[in-house]
Amino acid sequence: MTAPVLHRSAKAISNHEFAEALRATCLPRYPLARGTSERHVALAISGGVDSMALAFLCSRLKKTTPSVRLSDNVVGAFWGITISHGLRAGSRDEADRVGRVLTEQLGMKHQIKCIDWDEILEKDVNPAELPNIETLARRMRYRNLGLLCGRMGVGSLLTAHNEDDQYETVLMRMLTGRGYQAMQGMRPGANIPECYDMHGVYESGFLDDQRRKNPYYNLRPNKYKLTSMKYTMREQVNPVLVAREIELGMPHTSYLDSIEHYRNAGKKDAPPMPKVEVEDGGVMVYKPLLEFSKDRLTATCLENGVPWFEDHTNADPTFTLRNAVRHMYKNHELPVALQKPAILRLAARCRARVLSEEDQAKRMSHHVCIRDFDPNAGTAVIQMRRFVFPQVPRKLTGVRRQYRLENYRFVAALLLREVLPIVSPEREIAHLGHLDTIVSLLFPSLRRPSEPPVAVPKPFNFHGVYFVPLVGGKSLRWLISREPHSVQLPRPAVWFSAPRLESRMKKHPRRWKQGDWSEWRLYDNRFWIRAKSRLPCKVRVAPYEEEHAKPFRESLVEAKGVLSSLLKRHAPGKIRYTLPAMYADFNVTDVLEGGDYWLRDRDYTEVLDGAPALPEDENRDGLFAKRKWEERKAAEGKPQLIALPTLGVGLPRLDEWFEYEVRYRKVDYELLHRNVLDRLPEQRRIVVRWTRRRGGRTERRRGRSGI
């Protein structure tokens, strides 16, 4: 470690400054959570001066404030994680030295994770020579961080990105021609990247947390609230009336049953089905040092005697684009407009503009009302309100109306960008410029004068979303769902393996033991699915196909009408072929009905096709022949549709052989419940315009909101 040259104004970061930055960055995710339990917080420690300063600041804060809170919970302990990429000699030894500093000097727990490139790349490939090594290393770094956070039950990960990193990021995006949305730089808090298919790490795990005896996010009502609810319910019940009804023999149903009956009024042809729960949670990445320069982080380490370890590859301008940008502004005199103060001011202006647009979209969110979200089918019904243009002076009517029109169209595009992720399988939402192309279709009142009017709306696809118009009533509604699968593109699929052959040999199928629950797998970027099976074959989750519809319906026997009514109610038309379906490798009807599965021992010899005899240890009890027989049976057999998991429909007695659990991916609850008043009938939808206090009494002016 060499003594760096610091700016004269650089001073160490105080404990109060860091605590305020941490409090401003790590905002509560669940405001209603009481958060009485302690939870570990992970730190991404590379060994550089910025990450070592972060480790010291967290260690000092925990010592001075033992009950420090981060996000929703009290911090139990800070846990350092170092990812050793192995791209240069001595990286593992350096990680060990970092660990000794954290444990011995700072009193912090530490863990090292080495990346095994042999499992990722082909044989004899040097990862350091790859042209996309920066992107690949970032992906593996975050995936390993997410894996460790998931194992430790960590919900917050702190990184040491600082003001200089923000400057380099904005400058890089400027060089690549990005828009002002990207020019705002890194946000202080976001979901962990590169971990989209890891359950409990990316936007998932909240349901499992709530089922624990002592959940991290305590949303259960306390004793005072339960007592208040009890007395409130007592006041709403008339005991005299209840006694009179019991005396007359009137049937009584629970409150939940009555609500369910109300919701299903007019839909008696659709029987009830298990509700698919919606996931939430995951690991959040916070950057509390974005407001501090690297000079201040260096001064913090020097003043408190914290060593750090420089990576010489960071000084190589040919290694990554970030290194080239860093070399450019450190060794060359840049124009004033490209220097650090100007770029950071530009990022602040872009950030303020983006936040202003988001606030405006939130104020006008009532123009898009989500009427019905069905996680079982992955569909939603949205209703578009008419944008009303205010009255303006006659001389400026044309100019102001055009300006207002374009502004409203931009707000409508922002609202659509919030709605599309509910059903879209795409991870990245379309650019606002692309969304402008469908604004006129969904909001007829925002049609430009040069655009032709649309007489009859028709279904269309956009960015993985299928829009179906529902004509009827006073306004137009749209049923949105996942876009039907294309023949040219590969179909999404996940697999669940069969129990080990050794555990099933020489046993009747009725004696096969049920396996353990598999890991959660993400299907089509929409559904989390796990299963446990004792079927003798793999089970594949893939789209519901039309060719399997008739055989599956015939095999249901008494439940044919149930399947038809569920599909008609929840997945009409093409939407039903976007539902996830479970397929066995071959026909398992005989196994489900309790029949035998094995052949006679001498029949397995035909499977080997005259192959030479194997040693006894390799063909113990005919294990090799039976495995080849099952592989051939799966290869030559025709897949059999055994269940539609989100509808709760499967072959008879399937639940004795195959169990599954399905959850929908995370959905913005604020977006779904934002328009509570809009769900009321039109004649009861009342909006308070203003409230005024006059003469000791309150005056309220009311009005009806139109669509």
TrEMBL record:
Q: Which Pfam families match?
A: ATP_bind_3
The GO terms describing molecular function are:
ATP binding; tRNA(Ile)-lysidine synthase activity
Q: What is the residue range of the signal peptide feature?
A: none
**Keywords on this record?**
ATP-binding, Ligase, Nucleotide-binding, tRNA processing
Q: Which reaction does it catalyse?
A: cytidine(34) in tRNA(Ile2) + L-lysine + ATP = lysidine(34) in tRNA(Ile2) + AMP + diphosphate + H(+)
Entries under CDD domains matching the protein: TilS_N
Instruction: Show where the tRNA(Ile)-lysidine/2-thiocytidine synthase N-terminal domain sits.
Output: 41-190, 263-327
Q: Indicate the enzyme's highest-level EC class.
A: ligase
Output this protein's name: tRNA(Ile)-lysidine synthetase
Organism name: Echria macrotheca
Taxonomic lineage is: Eukaryota, Fungi, Dikarya, Ascomycota, Pezizomycotina
